[in-house]
Specification:
- 62% of the residues lie in helices and 3% in strands.
- It is mainly α.
- It has a two-stranded antiparallel ribbon.
- α1 runs parallel beside α5.
- The longest helix is centred in the middle third of the chain and has 28 residues.
- It is elongated, with a radius of gyration of 22 Å.
- 27% of the residues are buried.
- The N terminus and C terminus are likely disordered.
């Protein structure tokens, strides 16, 4: 039986976890296209008929494109997070495993979204699927910060990454709420991810990375009031 022990008491390299996760994302993204290949175009006897049949596939094509792009964005977030994770323990692996469970469900819920778009449940299941997967990605990053698994990243940058993950969670929740009325078009709300992330940062007055002022010669740098306290 696997004991629940925290990092770094019982941790291993993230190498195999990364490889397994990359494979699951790749397979899930590839399987999305099956929702298009199993749809019949009917009797085609001319270019015009083929064009009309392809136009009739606009909703499955849109759902496929959206699902593929969101999976790729989630994978890119995974890559960025694991760039700073040096070790992973049993808790972290279980969080990642449950998240991958919802990743591999995306092709199934995507097919339901196109086949039962007239039903509320059919329109909602795919957004809910993405919401849970994105939520677990945020939870995994919080676990990494609390367990001390993050290395080579300042506290400020780690908090910025947390807020970026939180903005994706909030937007995916809004997508779930909007999907019963506008269906897959609700996924277009993800274009607001950048502005919402900057809003959650709340650091417009703070100089950009690489532009922070350096201490004068002979003057020791020291943290601003309150910085360096309460960090974990």
């Amino acid at each position: 039986m696997i004991r629940r022990r925290s990092h770094p008491d019982a941790s291993v390299s993230t190498r195999r976890t990364e490889a397994f996760t990359d494979g699951v994302f790749a397979i899930a993204a590839t399987l999305l296209v099956l929702g298009l290949t199993d749809r019949s175009l009917g009797d085609i006897d001319s270019d015009a008929a083929l064009a009309d049949a392809l136009i009739g596939l606009w909703h499955p094509l849109f759902t496929f494109a959206v699902g593929f792009l969101i999976l790729c964005l989630m994978w890119m977030t995974h890559v960025q997070q694991f760039e700073h994770l040096v070790r992973i323990d049993a808790v972290g692996m279980w969080i990642n495993t449950v998240r991958l469970l919802f990743i591999v469900l995306v092709p199934f819920t995507s097919s339901l979204n196109t086949a039962y778009a007239d039903e509320v449940l059919g329109r909602v299941l795919l957004p809910v699927n993405f919401f849970v997967a994105i939520l677990l990605g945020w939870v995994q990053w919080l676990w990494a910060r609390r367990s001390g698994a993050v290395a080579g990243l300042s506290d400020d940058d780690a908090r910025r990454a947390s807020r970026a993950a939180l903005s994706a969670v909030l937007l995916s929740a809004v997508v779930v709420l909007a999907s019963p009325w506008i269906g897959s078009a609700a996924f277009l709300l993800f274009v607001l991810d950048g502005p919402l992330t900057r809003l959650l940062h709340g650091d417009r007055s703070r100089p950009a990375d690489g532009e922070r002022s350096r201490p004068a010669d002979g003057e020791r740098s020291r943290p601003a009031d309150g910085e360096g306290e309460g960090r974990g």
